[in-house]
Hints:
Blueprint: E1 41-45, E2 54-55, E3 61-64, E4 70-74, E5 78-88, E6 94-101, E7 107-110, E8 121-131, E9 140-148, E10 158-168, E11 171-174, H1 176-185, H2 191-202, H3 211-230, H4 237-250, H5 257-278, H6 283-310, H7 315-340, H8 347-367, H9 378-405, H10 411-429
Amino acid sequence: MRLLALCLSFAILAGCEPSGQQSRLDEPAKASDANSPPAGSAGPVSPAIPSQAAPASGGASVEEIADQSFQVELESWGKVRFVSAKRTNADGRKELVLSLKDAEDHTLYTFPQPKLVESWNFESVKAVSFKDVDGDGKKDVIVLADYVTGKGSGGNTAVTAPSIFVQKDKSFVSDYETDKRLNASGKITTMSDVVAFFKAKAKPEGAQTAPDSDNNATLAKVNRNLCSRVTVSNMSEDEIVQTYENEYAKHELDRSEHGQDEMYRYIGECFQQETDKLLANDSKLKTQTDAIHQTVNEAISELSGIDYIRDGGGTMWIHGGNRTIGMYGYRLNVYANMKLNHPNPASKKYDALAEKLDSNLAKLKEQGVKGLEELTDAQGVKDAEKDFDTRFSKLSTALQKFKELTSDKDEASLYLLELLTKRVGASIDEPKSMR
């Protein structure tokens, strides 16, 4: 999945006042209220979400959050009312519902559920801001809200998580990669923190800055130099990672778990840029490569989530998923180069390996969350089973799409299939403590 590029040129995110005035992990999507359009959809519907709690489809109820609902003018919508609401589902879990309404209180659009927080329990909205963050001239939406994750130690303590929604033509896109990066920093609790996060990354390399910004400038320079070196080399991916690690150590750059995640992301972005240049004159292959890249990233995200569920939590699975996704920027570059060099057919090997992949999937489904009862209570196991089933379904869909996208069954396709088959096998064959 290519990372969504954000324009980091804004200096101040405008805070909002109440209505009438002008702040190697994905989770499954939830069904929308029957009285609202599906998440991320447009079109007038009625009735709108009332200001008082009211029953909704499936025993859920929704309640507008008056002090976090605002009149705003959006380029693709004109003057509308942005509405924050809390939905309490039949199982007791609460989620944030965001929508746009017209002057007659009809719902024009319901925002998609941010992937980062979809399985968390919503507590409250802390701030909302409308600001162009990707430089296309349209206001985007930034929401800070408190959630209870229910995962790991301290899982019952509310944490503040950011959600970025990028405005497109009559829709908003939930920017999961940016949400994840902001959240992973562990420093985002106010809109000012969001401002500081992006301003630090926007500083010109030669500017006189504070130590943190100087470090960011050094990081950017080191990554540019590394990218120039590795893309013209014949290094293996292990050699590339070692080269980056050596340079990061030499310049005393962040080598924490988050810093390592970022390093792999930079590797992926480096080779993604190289792939874009490589395929600039081959739109058909570029479209195919981009589609495969996105599909593979979806599969890896679901696999990381499955490992997380089956082991009762633990950030190591999140970090592992992030780093694997980063490396697929390099791996899809290898794929593109192989395709341009007209790889030989490999139909028999491909079909045999596809059968192995299907077998691995069947074993993974059969194993499910067995053994999790040793780590959590009965309700926790029940919730984990539900999450596993949802993630496994998404994983199966992604891998089926991958096979459709690589139906040419040549050596380039076989290269990627081998990687995916090995990754699924690692989740079922090795002891959990070693995955």
